[in-house]
Design brief:
Elements lengths: L1 E11 L4 E10 L2 E6 L4 H4 L6 E5 L4 E4 L1 E6 L12 H10 L2 E6 L10 H14 L3 E4 L15 H6 L5 E2 L8 H11 L6 E3 L4 H4 L4 E2 L2 H6 L3 E2 L1 H18 L3 E3 L5 H12 L4 E5 L1 H5 L22 H13 L4 E2 L8 H4 L16 H10 L6 H15 L15 E11 L18 E11 L2 E5 L2 E2 L2
Parallel strand pairs: 1-4, 1-5, 6-7, 7-8, 9-10, 10-13, 11-12, 13-14, 14-15
Antiparallel strand pairs: 1-2, 2-3, 5-16, 16-17, 17-18, 18-19
The site of (4S)-2,6-dioxohexahydropyrimidine-4-carboxylic acid (DOR) has 12 residues, from loops.
């Protein structure tokens, strides 16, 4: 089946595209991009031609989220590859990078092979595996990096934890270097963070919860940048949350070091002030929600280019795990079904970024960081395509999630803009807001 998407607003900074036009897709590739393509001229194609009206919609290269917890193997009660990738497609994503903090941890070739195979069997979108830096995320010995890369791992990360020992982290960076994959770091000095639950400061005092200080994150960002300077291995700082942390990244970039960073919607659009007396555990995330000033600094970083990508850190948990005392609930919130709507509502509609920058942050740069084949709106490119309607008004509702989990702090918020159609390799995965089975 060949496919023509007609009359959408095509946006792709990689090819300087910002116009109303049509796309012709044949098999898994984009065949033609043009203005007002003549349907009749293509009706003698070998295959049948499906024409879809995309007037009023924005069409962009498939969105990519490089920080997602799919929880399989081992925690399928929270999420699995099938449900997590359905949620991804529902949120407008064609590609996700799966974090390795599963049970068992993805720290050798066989485990990566398992992810690849399960994704082939059950996933609705592309799943890019990442592997742990250290065995069992224990920070004590190196994982089987070569074996993992040979089977498809595109990044190394001990996400959920920081590698505590600086010497060990140096070995991680040195060993990773020849494989040409980035080391992605969750920055957390355990000796400073301890049992910290929320940002250390007025709010932790008011709520009577142990503090998770900004310095617990910033000290490790500084250390990791120093070791990046020592080794030259590409370093990607995960879910950065503070203004000073971002300044460290700015300095590193200015120096020419191969350092990139990501932010999440929850760290930009929520702050510690949103954690109320009801101790809603959906607001418990790691790193914690910081001050309103920090949140604003992250938004400025997105605006000025210091932030490279927006990710969700989609972290599903069961209701019974979250429905407990704040200290006992696990860290994390889901995000993959609300990310695009939040970014459109809070950044694009407010004029902080335009569609071009959105595509850079959510499609182009994520692929670049993982060294994936570029996807763009040009003839010959793989047909990974996200279509969204920038005018749909919707209210985030727990009942509408494709994820198994409900731990979103955005439930009840009204958003404007939502993905309607998703194509992965030319195959429709969502049509007019409904997942294609
Ligand atoms: O909030 C978080 N949840 N942060 C992390 O780093 C890990 C994640 C999880 O695995 O639940
Ligand atoms: Zn993390």
């Amino acid at each position: 089946m060949a496919l023509m998407l007609k009359g959408g607003h095509l946006v792709d900074p990689q090819v300087g595209l910002d116009m109303v036009g049509d796309l012709l897709i044949e098999k898994d590739r984009i065949a033609v991009v043009g203005e007002d393509l003549d349907q009749a001229a293509y009706e003698n194609l070998a295959e049948e031609l499906e024409v879809r009206d995309m007037v009023g919609k924005i069409i962009v290269p498939g969105l990519v989220d490089i920080h997602v917890h799919l929880r399989e193997p081992g925690y399928e009660q929270k999420e699995d590859i099938a449900s997590g990738t359905r949620a991804a497609v529902h949120g407008g994503f064609t590609t996700v990078c799966a974090m390795p903090n599963t049970k068992p941890v993805i720290d050798d070739g066989a485990a990566v092979e398992f992810i690849v195979k399960r994704a082939e069997e059950t996933a609705s979108c592309e799943v890019i595996p990442s592997g742990a830096c250290t065995k069992g995320l224990q920070g004590e010995s190196l994982s089987e990096m070569g074996d993992m890369v040979a089977r498809g791992a595109k990044a190394f990360t001990d996400d959920g934890r920081g590698v505590q020992d600086a010497g060990m982290f140096r070995r991680v960076m040195e060993y990773a270097k020849p494989f040409n994959v980035p080391v992605m770091v969750h920055c957390q000095v355990d000796a400073l963070v301890g049992e910290g639950q929320v940002n250390e400061g007025v709010v932790s005092t008011r709520l009577g919860l142990a503090g998770w200080p900004a310095e617990g994150e910033e000290c490790e960002i500084a250390r990791d940048i120093a070791i990046c300077r020592m080794t030259g291995t590409p370093l990607h700082i995960q879910h950065i949350t503070t203004e000073r942390g971002l300044d460290l990244v700015r300095d590193a970039k200015e120096e020419g070091l191969p350092v990139t960073c990501e932010v999440t919607p929850h760290h930009m659009f929520l702050s510690e002030d949103d954690i109320g007396e009801d101790y809603n555990t959906s607001f418990k995330v790691n790193p914690p929600l910081r001050t309103p000033e920090d949140a604003l600094a992250l938004i400025q970083g997105v605006e000025d280019g210091s932030v490279d990508v927006i990710v969700t850190d989609h972290a599903p948990h069961t209701a019974w795990e979250k429905d407990r005392e704040f200290e006992l609930a696990p860290f994390g919130m889901i995000g993959i079904e609300t990310s695009l709507g939040l970014v459109l509502t809070n950044l694009v509609r407010r004029g902080i970024i335009d569609y071009q920058r959105l595509v850079e942050l959510m499609a182009v740069k994520p692929r670049e960081i993982l060294n994936l084949e570029p996807v763009s709106l040009r003839a010959g490119s793989k047909a990974n395509i996200t279509v969204f309607d920038p005018e749909i008004r919707w209210t985030v509702s727990a009942d509408e999630f494709e994820s198994k989990a409900r731990n979103s702090a955005f439930i009840g918020q009204e958003l404007i803009g939502r993905a309607t159609d998703v194509y992965v390799g030319g195959v429709a995965k969502m049509k007019e807001g409904t997942i294609v089975e």
